Amino acid sequence: MSEQTKKQLVDTTPIWVDSAEQLAELCARWRTQSAVALDTEFMRSRTFYPLPALVQVGDGKQCYLIDNLAIDNLEPLKELLLDTRVVKIMHSCSEDLETLDRLLGAVPEPIFDTQVAAAITGMGAGLGYAATVQQLLQIELPKSETRSDWLQRPLSDSQKNYAALDVAWLPLIYGMLLKTLREQERLEWLREDCDAIIQSARQTEAPELYYLKVKGAWRLRQKQLAVLQDLCAWREREARARDMPRNHLLKENVCFGLAQSMPKHLATLGQPGLEGKTIRKYGEILLQIIASASERLDLPPRMPMPLNREQGEELKLLRQKVAELAEQAGMPPEILVRKKELENLVQAAAPELEGRLLGWRRAVVGEPLLEELNRLRKA
User: Fold this and answer.
1) What does the alpha-carbon distance between residue 171 and residue 133 come to, in Å, rounded to a whole number?
2) Domain-embedded: residue 57
């Protein structure tokens, strides 16, 4: 059957699912399939966690919109997501996994992320769903509902049609990418990367590690870093407990400024971006955190400084090597290795492969990079 014929067999008319009985019947049917398409709509403008608003399922023939706000028993959907016999086809799925975990207390497994698959097959890095559909199926998708209020009821026909299209073409794309991956002998690469996405979705990052993400933290001394670490950890715990965005509580640059100045009194607590109402509400707590952190004995180590001139030259040459390796593999360079991973190699006195570079990337890019770095340092 040609791809054109398969396209004609897909009915993109959305089917609304708002009863537990209807959902249970559909999930039982979907669990007899080898794969189903999956997507979510959610809102997150004023909350820390996503607010699940809709779950879309595509079975290759029709598109179903599951109204999770109306159904009191979503257990059949959870069982479908956890059924390892059924592949869940998704596109750029990290936020969807978080949303489903929030809704059902479960992360789907196994998954086939078509964005990752497209990159591994050489189509391009970070392709959006619409671009992937356009490249593979020559179908143009509308963009009209990207900023919709998905929690409103009833949803407009435009919203429903948009949501249905998010899963309509995924099964077809899955089949095409699966065929290419098998031909390229890269299906295991895709599975490895998708498994890593699942593991990441199941882990909650420790609040004590968020200070490592703050821009410019390398400028701080160890005692200041301890303050930054404790402020960021408090902000993370508080944001989760109150279900509010981190920056609505305390902006990152404010955390950095407080760690840098280490104020001891309310009168000296003022920072650019720190509003008076925030000081009135949290000022005493912030001062306590700063005072306590400044007395810590278990100080965090200094963070690596920006690359010096010699390291910068090494990074430039390694990036050239990555470009060569990417061309040989027919893949985007950023899929092989991230800039931060290259910087870590350059900054290490005795560089070792870690993280993503220990999997299929070891032979493709990791070991060649180590050899190149050793060669550069011996020259």
Assistant:
1) 11
2) yes
Selecting among 83, 96, 98, 230, the annotated active-site residue is 96
Task: Note if 83 is an active site residue.
Answer: no
Rounded alpha-carbon distances, angstroms, from residue 22 to 67, 73, 181: 11, 11, 36
- Among 83, 101, 145, 162, the active-site one is 162
Number of domains in the chain: 3
Final residue belonging to a domain, choices 294, 321, 353: 294
72 among known catalytic residues: no
Confidence band, pLDDT 50/70/90 cuts, at residue 243: very high
- How many CB atoms are closer than 10 A to CB 174? 23
Answer yes or no: is pLDDT of 294 > 60. yes
Q: Is 243 considered catalytic here?
A: no
Banded model confidence at residue 7, pLDDT cuts 50, 70, 90: low
Q: How far is C-alpha 289 from the geometric centre of its chain's CA atoms?
A: 31
User: Is 238 noted as a catalytic residue in this protein?
Assistant: no
Catalytic residue among 41, 145, 341, 372: 41
**Residues near 44 by beta carbon (within 8 Å), at least 6 away in sequence:** 50, 51
Angle at 91 between CA 87 and CA 97, to 5 degrees: 70
Summarize pLDDT for 166-179 with one digit per residue, the tens. Answer: 999 999 999 999 99
In-domain check, residue 159: yes
b/e for 206-225, b at 16 or more Cβ within 10 A?
Answer: ebeebbeebeebeebeebbb
pLDDT at 3 over 80: no
> What residue numbers bound the domain in which 119 lies?
3-202
Q: Say if residue 75 is in the same domain as residue 223.
A: no
d(CA 374, CA 379): 9
Residue tagged active-site, from 98, 101, 145, 166: 166
DSSP assignment string, 112-147: EEHHHHHHHTTS-TT--HHHHHHHHH--PPP-TTTT
Length, in residues, of the chain: 379
Cis omega before residue 108 (within 30°)?
no
- Per residue in 178-206, pLDDT tens? 999 999 999 999 999 999 999 999 999 99
- DSSP state string for 45-79: SS-SS-EEEEEEEE-SS-EEEE-TTT-S--HHHHH
* H-helix or E-strand spanning residue 311: helix 309-329
**pTM (predicted TM-score):** 0.93
- Annotated active-site residue 39? The verdict is yes
